[in-house]
Amino acid sequence: MRTWLMLLGAAVVGLAIGGLRTYIEMRQGAELFMPAEYAVLASKRADDARRVEPGKLPKAEVVGSAEYNFGSMDRDATQQHTFQLKNVGQAPLVVEKGPTTCKCTVGALPKGVLEPGETVDISVEWTGKTTLAQVDFVQAVQIKTNDPDQPFVEFIIRGYVTDSVRVLPSELAVGTISADDTVHTTFRLFAFRSEHLEILESSWENQETAECFELTWEPIPEAEVKEEKGATVGLLGKVAIKPGLPLGPINQTITLKVRADEDNDVRIPIGGRKLSDIRLASSPRFDANRNVVSLGVVPRDKTARAVLQMYVTGPYRHETHFSVVEVDPASHLSVTVSEPKELNQGKSLQYTVTIEAAGSAGPVNRLGSEKAPRGRVVLETTHPQTKRVPIDIRFAVE
Predict the structure, then answer these.
(1) Model-level pTM greater than 0.90?
(2) Considering the chain, what percentage of its residues have pLDDT values greater than 90?
(3) CATH classification for the domain delimited by 60-162, as one of 2.60.40.10, 3.40.50.920, 3.30.565.10, 3.90.1700.10
């Protein structure tokens, strides 16, 4: 019996020794096949663990402020600021870069581990980018730490972005306007680095409709200028849109040459749509919102056709007549306007406008680009408010 117990004890001891040897070999094998960077990290953490005494922990503390207000800066300019982080704990503090916003970057950290009492500089660089209508700038960067109470330390960059001059709003949207109404809209022009603001030149980009627009100026009161952060002086632009615009989308842009602390070129698009007693209805080939006929790519042996329905209402419907005054390119495009058809007991007149592109005229590209502008058809009318009906044509011939 005693012999049997001794044999059993020896077996248990052998199993324990064998298990311990297997565990050691597995650990050695794991370290053998572990990626180098993981092995370094594991070794470093083991070293840190041996250096931390029970009850002693790292603690991150910002030296000074975790927020920096740069005041104002020029749009798209770059600035830099250095924050400081200190280990006020009793064990090594591990620090590394964390997430940042897209307008901020963190420079290389001089140290990755801070001994108790040590400080690290954290250099942050940012670019002053905001939307044109927004000036306030707030961005954040984070630093990761092994402080159990503060795994992330956040630093804030704030201030506001300025321009030499700024237009508010940057685009004028007048919506839908009727043929016989005069519509008024305004915009404000501010200077930010000069007490002087002068309009050197002003013009209308689309000269065909320039006579339907009028621009006047008046100074913005000082109290209102102060409401725009950083602004020093301002002018109020007053735009009048008079009757006479062609039917369809309003295609106009104000162009300005402005002098403040430097000369600036400013563009202010005007968007909207002109409605009148004359209306073109949308169809599969015609987008009435953009006033564009799309004929696509026309084979050499084919002809592409778009049929548009045009309606005339109002007191001048029977006195309104149409004639084709422009076709571009005339070599490829043709247009016809039918006789009117009375609808709704004569309260509305319907015309059919047929536009064709001939592939037999040879290769051409008028799909719409700087080098390949759209084709164009213009109808002249005898209507007292709507003098012209322009229609853009997108097409090409292979």
Answers:
(1) no
(2) 64
(3) 2.60.40.10
